[in-house]
Amino acid sequence: TEPLLALAEVHAALGEPQQASELLASYLERDAEAPVTRLAWTALLRQQGAFDDALKQARAVLVRDPKNAGALLEVGRIYRQRGEYDAAELVFNRALALDEKSPAPHNELGLTHLARGDTQLAFSHFEHAIEADKTFAPARMNRAVVLLRAGDFVAATREYQSVLEQD
Fold first, then answer.
1. What are the per-10-residue average pLDDT scores of the chain (167 residues)?
2. Dihedral over alpha carbons 93, 97, 101, 104 (to 10 degrees)
3. How far is residue 117's CA from residue 150's CA, in Å, rounded to a whole number?
4. Which of 66, 88, 107, 157 lies at a CB distance of 3.0 to 4.6 Å from 139, suitable for a disulfide?
């Protein structure tokens, strides 16, 4: 699966999303039970703006495994990209309830509140994500964005430097 996903990622990075999509779809024809591949296809479809198709793929994973946090996160991201923030928040909270120790749902909730314009609540969720995993770079980067927007350039610089040192 790893080489397949990597090749699909290369096609997507080269601006060839159709080739990436066809590659993932052909694999799923042979192995419909491949949730990692299906979720990769879900993310690709979401990034292309094919939200209905992406939801269909994420739901196919959830039918087989209703507690698949990755699928829930993808569904929430789709709703957020559609501007359906309340629905996104509900889905991210469901993912958080499945695994309270995971930083990803907090990070996604933070991004949702940031999209709504609530930087204070966004910052709080990024903080929770970092408390869950001090090495979770996406939340640290997002926290730095909030600090930048707030005009705290010193703290934002310190945060970015910390992420660079870590990774």
1. 90 93 90 90 94 96 95 98 98 95 97 96 96 95 95 95 90
2. -30
3. 12
4. 107
What the block records as the tokens of 62 is 């959830």
Contact 71, 58 (CB under 8 A): yes
C-alpha 88/C-alpha 82 separation (Å) is: 9
> What is the amino acid identity at position 103?
P
For 23-63, the pLDDT digits (tens) are: 999 998 888 888 999 999 999 999 999 999 999 999 999 99
Q: What percent of the residues of the chain are helix, what percent strand, and what percent coil, each to the nearest 5?
A: 80, 0, 20
- Stated pTM of the model: 0.90
Q: Helix crossing, 85-98 with 69-82: angle to 10°?
A: 170
